[in-house]
């Protein structure tokens, strides 16, 4: 029962983090497109690639919430690799403040690092 509750709370946390930061990131993106925000020497194609990180967190959170309750005997490599990659993205957002991470809010890094630690911990403790 603890495994199921932990998985659902972690999945719900991922969905909330992904959805809320997708909204703020796309709001900054539209503000830049419509001229409300000006960025010197900004490449819109490279900066728009950063919008995929919160969107991936949202989509992965939906996947994790609904489909991770299958009882595997081994650790699911998709969940483990996604947790590790989200941790790396969170660390890179802390150190990189321009370019691909321009539209992502800086607090996204802390939220995604906490969520990725919860994912990796759950992978090793509950084997999902």
Word description of this protein:
The protein is 73% helix and 0% strand. It is built from five helices and no strands. The protein is elongated and about 50 Å long.
What distinguishing features does this structure have?
5 helices; 128 residues; mainly alpha; single chain
Fold blueprint:
Elements: H1 2-33, H2 44-49, H3 52-67, H4 77-95, H5 107-126
Helix pairs in contact: 1-3, 1-5, 3-4, 4-5
Strand share of the residues? under 5%
Helix content estimate? over 70%
Number of helices: 5
The structure class reads: mainly alpha
Spatial shape: elongated
Mean pLDDT value: 87
Distance, first to last CA: 14 Å
Low-confidence stretches: none
Total strand segments: 0
Order of helices and strands: HHHHH
The gist of it:
With 128 residues, the chain is mainly alpha-helical.
């Amino acid at each position: 029962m603890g495994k199921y509750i932990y998985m659902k709370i972690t999945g719900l946390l991922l969905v909330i983090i992904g959805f809320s930061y997708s909204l703020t990131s796309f709001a900054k993106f539209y503000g830049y497109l419509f001229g409300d925000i000006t960025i010197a020497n900004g490449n819109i194609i490279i900066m728009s690639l950063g919008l995929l990180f919160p969107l991936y967190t949202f989509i992965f959170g939906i996947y994790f919430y609904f489909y991770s309750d299958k009882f595997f005997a081994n650790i699911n490599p998709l969940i483990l690799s996604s947790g590790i990659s989200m941790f790396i993205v969170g660390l890179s957002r802390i150190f990189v403040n321009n370019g691909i991470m321009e539209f992502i809010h800086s607090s996204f890094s802390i939220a995604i690092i906490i969520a990725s630690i919860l994912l990796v911990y759950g992978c090793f403790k509950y084997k999902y």
